[in-house]
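Before drawing any conclusions, I looked closely at one protein's amino acid sequence and its backbone structure tokens, quoted below without any editing.
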Amino acid sequence: MAISQANAVNEIAWGLSNAERLMIDKASVATQIAGGVCSLWRATGIPGQGAIPTTAAVCSKALLGAMGFTNQVGPVKAYMAYAWASAQNAGYAPLVHDRLAHMGGLNGTLTTSQVCGVDITLPTSNLPARIGAADYSDCNWWLEWYTATGATVSNATCAVVYNDGTTGNVVVSVPASTAASRMLPIVSAVTGKFIRSITTVQLSASTATAGNFGVTATRERLVMPTDNIAYKRREFTWAQLGMNAVANDACLFPMVDTLTTSSGIIRSQIKMIYV
């Protein structure tokens, strides 16, 4: 049944009474920074620890590290209609993103161009339905760290393709000793244009340690700001969450905005309804 203005509340209530529950219970990740973004893809707990990617690949809910849910057959859709969240570090905001595509294996000592090939125009794993706006303006791009790179500051020049097919470069500052699970945003350098693929990354200087990092594309699906009290559970209704529809095969995984030097333990339960 489709949600209509006349019976929306009744349908949501029915959906909540028959909801599928998605759990998050992630161990703390150390060596983060205040004001940063921490990926929980590699954190232990629930969902399980995701693998470090190698060559570019489109992600789906079949991957270890993703939050499992049931694909639907139209016109029925999946919606995130209720959630609670708590954080060991007071005031943290757990996030849920759809991990669209990723790659890893970039080397922090190389100053030659390194191939990425992360492309979210591909038709696999229901990607066209997962990106949101057709101009890719709903998508986020990141350099994601899997193993720490070295103590020398560098700049990463990312060769991008924009939504209109034009190309350009986006420069991301790579701090000294960037740690595993750090995420550095890659933001379009041209107003009104949005990134659809990243072909290469080139460092301006060796960081002095190879480490391991890569390129990840995501789409934000949920933000759950917690209260300024450690471990206090905060609840979010369907009206507060905005009833975000979740496309089939979405690779949902947790992230967190950090206010100090660790992610802290993050816990949440999300009710997915099918209406």
Remarks:
- The first helix runs from residue 8 to 17.
- The chain has a mean pLDDT of 95.
- Helices lie at 8-17, 127-130, 238-241.
